[in-house]
Every structure is written in C-alpha cells, then in structure tokens.
Amino acid sequence: MDSPKQNRKSNNHPRLHKYLASCGLGSRRACEKLIAEGRVSVDGIVVREQGVCIDPACQAVCLDRRPVVAQAKIFLVLNKPRGFLCTSRDPQGRQTFLSLLPPLQARVFTVGRLDWDSEGLLLVTNDGDLAHSLMHPRHGVEKIYRVWTAACLTTEQEQRLRMGITSQGERLHLNDIKPVDTRDAKAVYEIRLVAGRNRHIRRMFEALGITILRLQRVAIGPLALDGLRVGVWRHLKDEEVRALRQYAIKPLQY
Questions:
Q1: What pTM value is reported for the model?
Q2: Average pLDDT value over all residues in the chain
Q3: Residues of CATH 3.30.70.580 domain(s) within the chain?
Q4: Residue 58, exposed/middle/buried by CB under 10 A (0-12, 13-18, 19+)?
Q5: Rounded Cα–Cα distance for residues 182 and 190 (Å)
Q6: What one-character-per-residue DSSP string does 181-210 give?
Q7: Would you say 243 and 222 are in contact if contact means Cβ atoms under 8 Å apart?
C-alpha cells in the first residue's frame, strides 16, 4: 500500500484536509491546521505535510488516535428571515441560521451568505465540493433576488447598474435588472447576479442614492423558494440535488 506521501499526486483520491472536513472536523483551513499540529495520522503514521492524498476505502485516518469517518451528506433549503446571521456562532450573541434548524448529526454551513438585513433562500449543506462549485465565479451560477426600493430607478440608473459601479475600490455590476412593479413611488425589481461581493447589491444602490427597503434572494441556479414560508426549512429532494450538481458544472456562457 502506498504511503500518504507517495499518494500526494493522486487525482482519484481526496486530499487529507478535504477528507477531514467531510468528516465534520471543521473548515478545510481548520483541518490543515490539525495536520500541521501533528494530530492526524494515516495508517498509524503521523502526517504533517499538506496536500497528501488518501484512499478512505483502504486507509485508516485518525485524529488524536481516534478513527474518523465521512458524514452522510445533508442538503437543506431555508427561507432565512431578517435578523439572522449566516455563520455558526457570533461573538456578540446574535441569532444565527442554525437556531432555525433542528439538531443535526453533522456540521453544516450555508452556500454563500445573506447579510443580517437580507432574507430569502439559503442552501445549507455539509458538501464542500458542491458548495465550492456553486460559489466559484467560473461556473457562472446565477442567483436571483427581489429588491424593494423607496424610489423608482430611472432608465439611466438601471443602465449604470448593468454597466458597473465602483464602490470601496471594487468594480461591481449586475448581470441583469428588470422592474417587477413600479405602479407607485416605490418599486420592486428582479436582479440577476453571478459573482457577488459583500453587500454587493446594497452598495450599488447606495452609490445611486437609492434606499433598499427589502432584499430577498429567491433562487440559486435551479433551486427556488417556491412558496417556502419565512423561517421554514425542508430537505432537498434527490432530483433537486442532481439538478444543482449538473447546473454547477455547466460551461459558463458568454
């Protein structure tokens, strides 16, 4: 059997830190730290080198001399209300998305984030590969939002949002924006976005002097809220998980 070091360049087996993360031992970065601290062994041999590949089917992996095993995959969709953070814990004691979920047998995280004042669709999982595919800009996964504003945008302002606005040294743009309801002074817009930055939409509207009254994410790729009530979650169906995987690996269209 190859030693961990000999398996370093394997393309068929996961890297050790990635496997540890799939076992619920923390983020990939945190698992790299566990390896560097000499707390991880493979077939009884302590591994400190990063990037080692292993074969979980025939190699024994231990943390602090205790065997670790990969966890079953969890896929949930949650309609996040305002006033909740997309993080596992908050030093200030504010509520997180986990308080809206039942006790789970695995460490889960959100695929992308919604800020404190935003609401809507959150994909919650422990599948790091799927999360990475959905969030990486090169895969072109589209997110759809509804935005309620205190004033209607002019045609020129809509065009500026499409072309891009510089905020805090970053060039931000929307893939598309279209009005949904502009019957009075207030308005509702549908926004499509691929590569999002922190408070991306809010920063763009702030640059135009437009106040956002409400911001809701309604879809990530093929996954939509579809009437899920605020604060409610559900398990994804098998076909929904397959659709997300297929969507995340599609070629980026220009």
A1: 0.78
A2: 88
A3: 75-137+223-248
A4: exposed
A5: 12
A6: E-SSSSEEEEEEESS--TTHHHHHHHHTTP
A7: yes
Q: Buried (b) or exposed (e) across 173-205, using 16+ Cβ within 10 A?
A: ebeebeeeeeeeeebbbbbebeebeebbbbbbb
Alpha carbon distance 212, 151 (integer Å): 9
**Rounded Cα distance, 246 and 196, in Å:** 21
- 43 carries an active-site annotation: no
Homologous superfamily of 16-67: RNA-binding S4 domain (3.10.290.10)
Torsion of CA 95, 96, 100, 104, to 10 degrees: -130
CB 126 within 8 A of CB 74: yes
The position carrying tokens 């763009």 is: 204
Helix (H) or strand (E) holding 200: helix 200-207
pLDDT, tens digit (0-9, with 9 covering 90-100), for 87-104: 988 889 899 999 999 998
Q: Where in the chain do CATH 3.10.290.10 domains reside?
A: 16-67
Quickly name the fold that domain 142-220 has: Pseudouridine synthase (3.30.2350)
CATH code for residues 75-137+223-248: 3.30.70.580
Rounded Cα gap, residues 46 and 33, in angstroms? 14
Summarised one tens digit per residue, pLDDT across range 113-133 is: 899 999 999 999 998 888 888
- Find the radius of gyration of the CA atoms of the chain: 21
Q: Which one of the listed residues 115, 127, 184, 238 is annotated catalytic?
A: 115
For residue 193, the cross-strand partners are 143
Nearest 5°: CA angle at 81, between 138 and 74?
55
